[in-house]
Each structure stands twice: as C-alpha cells, then as structure tokens.
Specification:
Elements lengths: L5 H15 L4 H11 L4 E2 L9 E2 L3 E9 L7 E10 L8 H19 L4 E12 L2 E10 L8 E4 L2 E4 L5 E5 L10 E9 L5 E6 L8 H12 L2
Parallel strand pairs: 3-5
Antiparallel strand pairs: 1-2, 2-3, 4-10, 5-6, 6-11, 7-8, 8-9, 9-10
Length: 216
C-alpha cells in the first residue's frame, strides 16, 4: 500500500510536539508525508488527497482525543465540506461529492489509489500519545445505504455511517462526517513519547531563546 518509516514518524512527533504543544492538523499532514517513502505534502482544502506518493493519494485526518479503555474506539471524522443545492437529494449529493473529490485527486496527480491515514492523538502532561491507522479508502458509491435525516445507515446496521450536517448546524456546517471504529490491534503505528510541553513556555524564557537565535 504505502511505506512509512516508523522511526522517522516517532522522531517528527517528538520534534513538533515540543514546539507546538498539541500537534496541529496541518503539521500532522506534513509529518505523515515526510515519514512516507516518496511522500509529498499537497496541503490546502481543494483535494481529498492531503499528500501523495508516486501512485497513491494520502487522505490524512488527525483527531485530538484521549484513548478509550479497551481495544476499540468509535469516532466521527470530518471528511470534507459538502455544500448542496437545496433541491438536490442529500444522500445522492453527499456520495457524489465524496466520489468526485477522490476522483479529482487521482486525476490531478496521476494516482492509482487512495489511502486513509487517521491519527488519534493527545498530550498527557509531558507524554505525547499517538496511534496511526492506515486503510484503503472506501468506494462509497458502491455501498448500499438507507438515508434518513441527512444520515446514511448501512443495510443491516442501526448506527449511522455517514452524516451530512445541514447549513443550520451551529458548527461544522455542511460538513460530511464519517463514523469509524478503530481497533488498536489494527494500528499501524503507536507510541507514547516524552515531550516537554513548550507550549506553556514563560515569556522570559522565550525572549532568551529568541535572542540566542539572532546570534547563531
């Protein structure tokens, strides 16, 4: 599928966590791309692919959340914005948007496939915890769903799988959320590293560091 250097990943998590306190979504995209063989960061919100290798798109999502007890954890992941004309069927429009965004990335960068890379992470004082999951991106247009109240339920499953927020939502307006279940046994990479929380650095200390940087 893709090749990620675990040592590079761990080193970059340490480096950026000490500088950002909490690693930001765009930084995670860069960390994954830098850790991946032939990886290149794309950035921006235009394409589903946040990065790419020679032949594979990298759909990278980071979720700031503590790990739950047990092996499994269910999380709703924001995939993309999905503005729709009010006359368009929400179900069809949502699936069409997901399919179009994937195909746009594949065509633009001459790629053959897409993978989802999801990172669950959080800081616990001076410990930074992360789990990285790598899966093939689903073909949502080939699945069978039942749509109700802007949410898709897979046949035989009572829990929603895909949800599209309406324009009146107080947060994440018109965003598509996809519910995923993560099992730590299928985790590609995981770790807890010692990381000083420089996010809370004092004013005097940061002034000293800045002055030192000017004479180097």
């Amino acid at each position: 599928m893709i090749s990620i250097d675990g040592d590079a990943l761990e080193s970059l998590v340490w480096y950026y966590s000490e500088r950002e306190g909490i690693i930001q979504p765009e930084t995670w995209e860069k960390i994954i791309c830098q850790s991946t063989k032939d990886g290149e960061w794309i950035g921006g919100d235009t394409y589903m692919a946040d990065g790419k290798t020679l032949y594979c798109g990298l759909n990278i999502k980071s979720i700031l959340k503590k790990f739950t007890k047990g092996d499994t954890q269910t999380i709703s992941v924001i995939q993309c914005r999905c503005p729709l004309d009010e006359n368009i069927d929400v179900g069809k429009g949502t699936i069409d948007t997901l399919t179009e965004k994937k195909n746009e990335s594949l065509k633009k960068f001459n790629l053959k496939s897409m993978v989802d890379i999801d990172i669950i992470h959080y800081r616990d004082e001076n410990n930074y915890n992360y789990r990285v999951f790598v899966t093939e991106h689903p073909d949502y247009d080939k699945e069978e769903y039942i749509w109700k109240d802007n949410a898709a339920y897979m046949v035989g499953n009572k829990k929603w799988k895909i949800k599209r927020n309406d324009a009146n939502s107080s947060a994440f307006q018109t965003c598509v959320l996809i519910k995923k279940c993560y099992d730590v046994k299928t985790c590609a990479f995981k770790g807890t590293i010692k990381s000083n929380n420089n996010y809370s650095i004092s004013t005097e200390d940061v002034k000293k560091l800045y002055e030192q940087s000017k004479v180097q």
